[in-house]
């Protein structure tokens, strides 16, 4: 299934699917996680490149070339940088649409092979990876 998502959603989904990939699942579920992860990784890399180009222009760097971070975990801006302008640019980047992201899905019957699953994990699977036409009636 192909979906259009925002960069903000892309980041959240990519992080979530990366954590799911650390667990053992039945073959079809693992296949879905891996193949979807590949598709997301390409789009995530594009996002990171855009973010880095913004960071290179507006963020301070340390002696190793890494962006400096303040005690609250935020990036430290160059001294002549308008923070509202940077916030606006970053917000636009997060809201930018990513079209036709491929989510490789599986039948809900595969979920019965899992002995335990958190509600949060099930919700993620249901939203992105379980084929809609195979979902059981509630």
Word description of this protein:
- The model has no long low-confidence stretch (mean pLDDT 93).
- A two-stranded antiparallel ribbon has the order 1-2.
- It is elongated and about 55 Å long.
- It has helices at 7-20, 27-58, 83-95, 119-129, and strands at 2-6, 97-102.
- It contains four helices and two strands.
- By secondary structure, it is mainly alpha-helical.
- 51% of the residues lie in helices and 8% in strands.
- The longest helix has 32 residues, at 27-58.
Give me the number of helical elements: 4
- Indicate the overall shape: elongated
Structural class: mainly alpha
- Poorly predicted tracts of residues: none
Write the layout of secondary structure elements.
Elements: E1 2-6, H1 7-20, H2 27-58, H3 83-95, E2 97-102, H4 119-129
Antiparallel strand pairs: 1-2
Helix pairs in contact: 1-2, 2-3
Give a quick precis of the structure:
The chain is 51% helix and 8% strand. By secondary structure, the chain is mainly alpha-helical. The protein is elongated and about 55 Å long.
Keywords for this structure?
4 helices; mainly alpha; two-stranded antiparallel sheet; 138 residues; 2 strands; elongated
């Amino acid at each position: 299934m192909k979906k259009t998502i925002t960069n903000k959603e892309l980041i959240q989904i990519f992080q979530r699917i990366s954590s799911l990939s650390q667990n053992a699942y039945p073959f079809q579920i693992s296949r879905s996680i891996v193949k979807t992860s590949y598709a997301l990784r390409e789009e995530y890399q594009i996002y990171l490149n855009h973010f880095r180009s913004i960071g290179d222009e507006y963020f301070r760097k340390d002696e190793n070339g890494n962006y400096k971070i303040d005690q609250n975990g935020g990036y430290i801006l160059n001294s002549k940088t308008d923070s509202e302008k940077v916030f606006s640019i970053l917000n636009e980047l997060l809201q930018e649409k990513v079209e036709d992201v491929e989510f490789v899905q599986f039948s809900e019957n595969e979920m019965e092979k899992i002995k335990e699953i958190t509600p949060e994990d099930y919700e993620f699977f249901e939203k992105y990876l379980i084929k809609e036409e195979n979902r059981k009636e509630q």
